[in-house]
Amino acid sequence: MSNKLLGAAAVILDSEGYVLLVKHSYGKYNWELPGGLSEKNESAEETAQREVLEETGIDVAVEQLTGIYYDPNNDMHPFCFHL
C-alpha cells in the first residue's frame, strides 16, 4: 500500500479560451489552478469537483484527464482534469 499523497487540479476554460485561476490566501499567495489534496477514499475526479466547488462556488463535471504528474517537493501525485 502506497503512502503517497494524491491530489487533483482542474483546467477550466471560458468561451474565449482563458483559464480560470484562483489566488490562494495562504503560503506564497500564488495564482493557481483550482485544486488540492484528496480526502480519504476520494477519487481524483471527486477531488477535482470538490476543490473547484470549494474554491470557486462552481459545480462542475469532469470531462477528461489531461495528465498525472509527480511533485517531488511534496512526494505527491496530482491529477489534472479538463472540466
TrEMBL record:
Cofactor(s) named in the record: Mg(2+)
Domain annotation Nudix hydrolase: ranges: 3-83
PROSITE patterns per record: NUDIX, NUDIX_BOX
Keywords, in A-Z order: Hydrolase
InterPro entries given in the database record: Nudix_hydrolase, NUDIX_hydrolase-like_dom_sf, NUDIX_hydrolase_CS, NUDIX_hydrolase_dom
CDD domains assigned: NUDIX_Hydrolase
Molecular function, one GO term: hydrolase activity
Domain of life: Bacteria
The family this protein is said to belong to: Belongs to the Nudix hydrolase family.
Protein name: NUDIX domain-containing protein
